[in-house]
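Action item from last week, closing it out:
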Amino acid sequence: MILTSLDRLHRLLRLVVGLCFSVLLVAVLLQVVSRLMLPNPPIWTEELSRFALLFCAAFGIGLALRSGDLVGVDLLTMMLPRRGKAVMEVASCLVMVGFGLLLLSPSWAFVDIGSLQTSPALLWNMFWVHMSVLIAPLALILAAVERMLRVLAGLAPEVRQDNGLEAL
């Protein structure tokens, strides 16, 4: 039940990452084309692409951990027996959850500072942009908890989604 709910949530996160990446792609394309063709290219495209990249990374970190694509060193764990691998995986997930929890308070402080600022080109309240710094550890915690639950349930820790958007 919990894993099914997390599957649905991760499908939504994949859609959000795709949307962020699409915004990034359009902003950069517009920036390049306008610099070549217009005498005064819009200045907001650089800011928008930077913000889209921040949210792409913030939402994507949990997805990368969930699919096993997040960078990790597994040389030691490859040599362990199956039970040893499971113990190491659970320990690793607990460390990631602890690290994510440790980041929540300073992340919120950073987000709160953003409420006092406005972006120069788009004139957005930076509270919403700084929110990406809070989303990243939350996404990491969520994915690590799911990974740990999968290991404890005897399932594969990674959820492979190599078939692209068809998995949605």
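Closing note: The first helix runs from residue 2 to 37.
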